[in-house]
Design goal:
Layout lengths: L1 H28 L2 H20 L13 H12 L9 H4 L2 H16 L1 H13 L4 H8 L23 H29 L4 H16 L18 H16 L1 H10 L8 H25 L11 H18 L11 H13 L12 H16 L4 E3 L2 E3 L1 H29 L3 H12 L14 H16 L1 H8 L19
Antiparallel strand pairs: 1-2
Helix pairs in contact: 2-3, 2-5, 2-19, 3-5, 3-18, 5-6, 5-9, 6-7, 6-8, 8-9, 8-10, 8-11, 9-10, 10-13, 11-12, 12-13, 12-14, 12-15, 13-14, 14-17, 15-16, 16-17, 16-18, 17-18, 18-19
């Protein structure tokens, strides 16, 4: 009798486990967005466990959970914000774990999952192509159903995924080769530079901004070659893999560039120049930043700061010394971020471009939004507006919560929160002083900023329902 009861209980447990497994499988496979969130969360938990190993810290003791979790989130989400000093707190093993993590996070979970599927199956099926298209396809506009216009290039997804992997290896390798001599001339040993060069290259291309040496970039403040190489790496990482893919095929044939490529490059350059001019005008007399520099140094550092606020995260000047007006400009640049399907965060430059075009079209009284001989459909405009609304809501709630917890100046809290949401990594110094509850809130902000507001919304509402009727029209007063 006892044996039969034990067998019945064991069978009940097996049935519950099977049901749980079926539920988990259905939940993750019903939507690529949900699948992305599950994989991202799993990677963060794995790297939290790895960074919690005593061997991962320089002291040889287990890192506090808040620091290990925050660093894991910042690593996988390629953010660069940290509650500890990366150079001194983590051991060589810990830095290797971080190096691997930023490259995994930089490629993007959906892209990474598709590459793994390609390696395992040797070919991409339709489902895998649809998942890959959700993050990589240049024609993929949003997280909803894939329409005919967006499936045109599904046959090219396999080639695009190879471009992602190869471009990451080639670009980071080239950056490391360029950085190595500069590190040697800065007095860093040959073997140490052999490690720091690829580390800096990875942090630049993935737009993370971690530095492996004490003092960050301060020892290289006058090395314009090294700083320029870092800016190039940040730029290539921030424009996005679809743009890199297009440029690799049609670099000198602008007429063959996709609308996404044109909007990304034009908006990126406009923001880069506008940000530099703004910092130049606001900070030229600030003794804590540019005030002690000559005209050439001030101009160069203004452009470097503009590039880094777009998502790079490296800093030569003390961000905490910036004027309040400059912090506002930096916050605006960080909120926009970089290109779609890139290592950068933010609402993305194409979102800003589409909204600007919509406002211009409305001002001109045009019935549709057009750019470069193409019409932008209304559903893309709605998604762009939703991204901005969700992003602003996340930033506002996080700012209010952390400000209430820390009682810190609101401009510092807002800057660091937007840096977290935009996965930038610049800080006024506030993040390193956060209490554990506020650090968890900041980590959640990083997570939500990296996976994307559209992906988050699509994960919650995984299905798209067709409405076979329309309601009567009535126009409320707007404005």
């Amino acid at each position: 009798m006892a044996t039969s009861r034990r067998s019945a209980r064991a069978e009940a447990w097996r049935r519950r486990l099977r049901e749980l497994g079926h539920f988990f499988r259905d939940f993750t496979t019903s939507s690529p967005a949900r699948f992305a969130i599950v994989v991202f969360t799993s990677l963060i938990l794995i790297f939290t466990a790895l960074l919690s190993l005593p061997a991962a810290s320089a002291s040889g003791t287990r890192a506090p959970l808040a620091d290990a979790l925050f660093t894991a989130v910042s690593t996988i989400c390629v953010t660069g914000l940290t509650t500890v000093d990366i150079a001194t707190f983590w051991s060589p093993l810990g830095k290797v774990i971080i190096f691997v993590g930023v490259n995994i996070g930089g490629m993007g979970v959906l892209t990474l999952a598709s590459i793994l599927g390609l390696i395992i199956s040797k070919r991409l099926g339709l489902r895998a192509k649809l998942i890959a298209a959700g993050d990589s396809n240049p024609l993929r506009a949003h997280g909803g159903p894939v329409n005919e216009g967006q499936t045109v290039r599904l046959g090219e997804v396999g080639q695009l995924l190879r471009t992602v992997a190869l471009s990451t290896l080639v670009i980071e390798g080239a950056l490391a080769l360029l950085l190595y001599p500069s590190l040697l001339m800065a007095g860093i040993g040959a073997l140490e530079a052999l490690w720091e060069a690829p580390f800096y290259a990875a942090m630049a291309f993935t737009n993370t901004g971690f530095t492996p040496n004490p003092g960050g970039l301060a020892p290289f403040a006058d090395d314009y070659f090294l700083l320029t190489v870092l800016m190039i790496g940040v730029f290539l990482g921030s424009i996005g893999f679809p743009v890199i893919y297009t440029l690799s095929r049609h670099l000198w044939h602008v007429g063959k560039w996709s609308l996404h490529t044109k909007l990304t490059l034009i908006t990126t350059m406009l923001l880069f120049v506008a940000g530099a001019l703004a910092f130049l005008g606001l900070e030229y007399d600030n003794p804590g930043t540019f005030g002690s520099l000559d005209a050439w140094d001030t101009t160069f550092q203004a452009f470097f700061l503009s590039a880094m606020t777009r998502s790079g995260g490296f800093s030569v000047v003390d961000v905490g010394e910036l004027y309040g007006s400059s912090l506002v400009v930096g916050s605006m640049l960080m909120f926009v971020g970089g290109g779609s399907a890139s290592t950068a965060g933010g609402i993305k430059v194409t979102t800003l471009a589409i909204l600007a075009l919509a406002v211009w079209s409305e001002a001109k009284g045009r019935a549709s939004v057009e750019a470069f001989g193409r019409r932008i459909p209304s559903d893309v405009q709605r998604v762009a507006l939703s991204v901005v609304a969700w992003g602003a809501t996340i930033v506002a709630l996080s700012t209010i919560t952390i400000s209430q917890m820390t009682k810190a100046p609101i401009q510092e809290v807002l800057f660091d929160v937007i840096s977290a949401f935009g996965t930038v990594g610049l800080s006024t110094g506030l993040t390193a002083e956060l209490p554990d509850p506020a650090a968890y809130v900041m980590a959640l902000t990083i997570f939500m900023g990296r996976i994307g507001t559209v992906t988050l919304a699509a994960a919650v509402a995984a299905t798209s329902r067709s409405q076979l009727y329309s309601l009567p029209v009535e126009r409320p007063i707007v404005g």
